[in-house]
Batch of 2 targets.
Target 1
Amino acid sequence: MISDNDAKLNGAVRESNHVHIRDIGHTMALPVEKQYGKDNHFKAYTKAIAGVRVREVMRETGCLPPPRQRSVARFMNLSHTIKWSRNMQRIFASLNTNEKQTFDFVNTHGKTTGGSSDVFGFVNGVLKRVKPEGLSKKSIDTRLKETDRILNNRNKRMVRFKSSVRGQLERERDKPAGEKSVWNASSDMIESPFGCCRFKRSGNPLHGVTACALILPLLTRTGDRDRPFRG
């Protein structure tokens, strides 16, 4: 069964005696949050990002603000925001005076975004591959090799992040039943439609499904040759 890393869901799946596949997006967000969640420089950067979106949306600079960032899942999709910051630094000299004053924070936090670009780029790369390819021993082994190749900076933060990522991936590696087994590794397909349903119908108490929209588990397979599913 597949779910995010919610404690209640983890306990429920564990008690069901099913193999628990953790959503790859949430799984990769955990090491990121562990490294950056309490970092004051990083929090100041994300606060500046959120502030400029609100302030500039209806102004002349409204075409330049960063991508929208979800507050709940901010560690799952920050790679686009980091890329935006790096691009803004690259073109900063071509901005007019007003634009420079508005977006000068990209230079103020340049060290933060520069140091984290490899991390978020790596996470984004893992998600782009594992979500469509699925979870298999082969796909995880490939990602582990990429971990060693891409995350090769020896500073303490990167070493801790790399160790945490490897631990998360290795934990999932042996869950597929066989070498050729490929299982779904993303809960997006259930979160997206049920999330929309909950958003549209949340004001109507008669639609009881909305209260349970995101705790409905999904079987990751219909069966393997060496381990058939029995309903």
Note: The mean pLDDT is 79.
Target 2
Amino acid sequence: MSTILPLSGPSGGGGVGPGPTYSNGIGGGSGSGADWSSIGLGSSDVGLGTSGRGKGLPLVFRRLVKFRSMDFELAFWQLTYLVVAPRRVYKQTYHHKQTKNQWARDDPAMLLLIAGSLGAAGIAWSLLYRLSPTSALTTILLMIFRDFILFSLVTSFVLYTLANRLLLAPSVPHSSISDNRVEYAYAFDVAVNSFFPAFLTVYVGLLPLAAVVVRDNWVCLWVGNTLFLIAGVQYIYITYLGYVALPFVARSELFLSPLLPLFGGYLLSLLGFNVAKHALEIYFGQGWK
């Protein structure tokens, strides 16, 4: 198994600096693999991500217990900019491709930070609804593993399949086929990125308004439904930014197409369907306690 190395490089400078390099170039033997020199990457530029066993989601999950190799400072920076300036997060993907030879992150720090945030939100909602310890634990686990992990895995698989089958641009000269395909691990990264701002809007933003949005009047209905609309727009837009950052994905504007049914559904819901109230009833058995 490949040795797990810190992501921030041997100099100790956290953040976006280049990762460690290898003079022998992992996987640099004869046979399969792209000609790195032909696309501007020497063998020393190929990071740990080029290993056949160390690439993609399995590597991320194996690193979940390797806390010393995680760059939490960079992950926190990325989470902050996902809210205020999401384009800046995706500007780093090209640099990661140059240094690690993969578009996806190989650091699970962001997963842990979001899971921790969901855990804190679950505790807050459990206190608000006066849940028993068992029900509170169930709520937290559902938020983390169903709402976040499972939803991100399913969404990323659907978009990964759609992008690779229908939206790839013609191959770039002097590059391998794998260089012109969306990595599933990158699609998962995009889903994770898109989830966080939506989480803040719904899971956190709805907390102080829980007693308001369930009332039977149109203004409260509008407030709750608008929160869910904002969360949906955030999710779709950040997903779009993730795929438009890949130079080989054509017609990336199609990732914005869900905005049309989203706005249509929002307008219809204003006729009397309280999205927030129904969501709380599904989660906790009743709109307000």
Note: Residues 110-284 form one domain.
